[in-house]
């Protein structure tokens, strides 16, 4: 989640570039300044965090919160529906060998 200043043209450009980066990296917009991404293991998480740190704008606030897929899938919507990219998260995955 992030809160970036958009007062000057330079700040607006930094905001647009950051949102474009998140979208291109497969993040899904949950709310206006909240994006999520499903990551399957800790190694990939560390890699993504390192990439993200290189792309964050210099001003504003950018935060991350790591939750399990099960925790995320149990999110309750009091009003409204899940965004398109979030449909299909499940907790009953089965791997057959």
UniProtKB/TrEMBL annotation:
EC number in record: 3.1.-.-
GO biological process: defense response to virus; maintenance of CRISPR repeat elements
GO molecular function: hydrolase activity; metal ion binding; RNA endonuclease activity
Domain of life assignment: Bacteria
CC cofactor: Mg(2+)
Keywords associated with the record: Antiviral defense, Endonuclease, Hydrolase, Magnesium, Metal-binding, Nuclease
Family to which this protein belongs: Belongs to the CRISPR-associated endoribonuclease Cas2 protein family.
Task of the protein: CRISPR (clustered regularly interspaced short palindromic repeat), is an adaptive immune system that provides protection against mobile genetic elements (viruses, transposable elements and conjugative plasmids). CRISPR clusters contain sequences complementary to antecedent mobile elements and target invading nucleic acids. CRISPR clusters are transcribed and processed into CRISPR RNA (crRNA). Functions as a ssRNA-specific endoribonuclease. Involved in the integration of spacer DNA into the CRISPR cassette.
Protein name per the record: CRISPR-associated endoribonuclease Cas2
Species: Macrococcus bovicus
Gene for this chain: cas2
